[in-house]
Specification:
Number of strands: 5
Distance between the termini: 115 Å
Number of helices: 6
Oligomer: single chain
């Protein structure tokens, strides 16, 4: 009995030790479980953060693609506008060349009589010397000049898409005749330009296409110290410019 009691006591001690071991192991399991749950929570948060970052990157990429598509559309539109402008310019260059040929043909009978026709910067200049147009110090247009202006008007009145500026020029000799309101070279150049403009209007060139300007002595083309230079400076220039409204409208839209 004593041996059995000792054996039972020993077994109780072993059971107690096993129970303690079980308790310790359960504590370790609980700790591992907590650690796992914490790890799982942290991993989920990190995963969500990565998902959010990726979503942001996708949004940025989509926006970049949209912006690129918009810019490509804008670029295509600008290229189309530029091509249209180039086409219009080519048409206008050809139209100016054709118009100059027509004016040359119309004024061919006045070669060597004080009329020069030339093209400059996309404009046509018809320069008429005063020896053809006026007597000295006057602004009444001579009959011979009216014939030339009539020939020119027959070409211009067929062109509705032109701007026409008539400029009067004098030499450097002061105007001293003093007729009415005409007191100096400024007034004389204006009166001569206006006189030519009225003649063209009388030959059915549209007045809405024309404007008259006096430039006095300040844009010489010859040397005012010589008689031949002064003769060149005394002139009326009819400057013919294509209407650039269509081109300007396209440029403003680019």
């Amino acid at each position: 009995l004593s041996d059995l009691e000792n054996a039972l006591l020993q077994k109780d001690e072993e059971i107690a030790k096993l129970n303690q071991d079980i308790t310790n192991k359960q504590a370790e399991i609980d700790e591992l479980q907590n650690a796992f749950e914490a790890l799982a929570q942290d991993s989920s948060k990190e995963l969500q953060d990565n998902i959010d970052k990726n979503r942001d990157l996708l949004d940025q990429l989509a926006k970049s693609r949209s912006d690129l598509s918009t810019k490509e559309g804008e670029l295509a539109s600008k290229i189309s506008s530029i091509n249209e402008i180039e086409s219009l310019l080519a048409q206008q260059r050809q139209a100016i060349a054709n118009l100059k040929n027509s004016i040359d043909d119309a004024l061919r009978g006045f070669e060597g009589r004080g009329i020069t026709v030339y093209e400059k910067n996309g404009q046509i200049y018809v320069s008429m010397e005063n020896k053809l147009l006026f007597t000295s110090g006057k602004w009444d247009v001579r009959d011979e000049a009216k014939t030339a202006l009539n020939q020119l008007a027959n070409v211009l009145k067929k062109q509705s898409d032109l701007n026409i500026v008539i400029e009067g020029h004098t030499d450097s000799v002061p105007y001293n005749t003093k007729q009415g309101e005409v007191m100096d070279n400024w007034d004389l150049s204006v009166m001569r330009a206006t006189a030519v403009t009225k003649i063209l209007e009388g030959y059915n060139v549209r007045p809405t296409q024309m404007s008259a300007a006096g430039r006095s002595k300040f844009i010489p083309i010859g040397d005012n110290s010589s008689e031949s230079g002064k003769a060149k400076n005394r002139r009326v220039e009819i400057i013919i410019t294509p209407n650039l409204e269509k081109i300007n409208k396209i440029l403003n839209q680019i």
